[in-house]
Design brief:
Elements: H1 7-13, H2 20-30, E1 38-42, H3 48-56, E2 61-66, H4 69-72, E3 79-83, E4 96-102, H5 111-121, E5 122-133, H6 138-149, H7 159-168, E6 172-178, E7 181-187
Parallel strand pairs: 1-2, 1-4, 2-3, 4-5
Antiparallel strand pairs: 5-7, 6-7
The chain binds S-adenosylmethionine.
S-adenosylmethionine (SAM) binds next to helix 3.
């Protein structure tokens, strides 16, 4: 997908894909964080997920990474932006307390490498929040087929399969299903 040219669209309409239960899960995930944590939004785009997280806790330090500069240029000022891919994160080992992925995991071309990178940049006990579409549902499958048409990797998971994948990376996982969407709250 030509994300570099879609920044305006995602900035103004991206929030429509975030339902209330997803935002509640995100705030719940952030509950218990103090004010000193640093979080990384991978495939952040215009920073939509960080914007929602900021409404739950504006004291955290928010960092974003995305290959599309045309998306990042719409990020809010409090988000420190970096151009880069999930498969080769431009950060030192154990740099972050938490990682977010909002509708971005399925765009990664090499999920195994991306998850290895997530574990590398997370501190001991670090946490992961994922929001994505469930391939096992009608709407999830429709999005999958549409993205395939656009030549995207379309690496969509059914939640229980992703749970196993993340557990294989060393995470303890809580999965929340919301119709054709789901969230993951996980910790190392
Ligand atoms: C559907 S958008 C979601 C953006 C944002 N997280 C949100 O919730 O609005 C997917 C994002 O994943 C990014 N992306 C694609 N391939 C990526 C990769 N290999 N590593 C990191 N991000 C990637 C795209 O540039 C795009 O900004």
């Amino acid at each position: 997908m030509p994300f570099n040219n879609l920044g305006f669209v995602f900035k103004h309409f991206g929030s429509l894909v975030y339902s209330k239960p997803i935002l509640e899960d995100l705030c719940l995930f952030l509950h218990g964080f103090t004010d000193t944590e640093i979080v990384l939004d991978i495939g952040a785009g215009t920073g939509m997920m960080s914007e929602f997280a900021y409404r739950c806790n504006e004291k955290l330090k928010y960092v974003a990474v995305d290959p599309a500069e045309g998306m990042l240029k719409y990020a809010p000022a409090y988000l420190e932006t970096h151009v880069g891919e999930a498969e080769a994160l431009p950060f030192e080992d154990e740099s972050f307390d938490a990682v977010f992925m909002g509708e971005s995991l399925h765009h990664f071309h090499d999920i195994d490498t991306a998850l290895t990178e997530v574990v590398r940049v997370l501190k001991n006990g670090g946490r992961l929040f994922v929001y994505d579409f469930d391939k096992g549902t009608f709407l999830g499958k429709s999005v999958y087929l549409m993205e395939k048409l656009f030549g995207e990797p379309a690496n969509f998971y059914e939640p229980d399969v992703l749970k196993e994948v993340l557990e294989g990376c060393g995470f303890s996982v809580t999965m929340m299903k919301h119709g054709w969407r789901y969230t993951v709250s996980a910790s190392l």
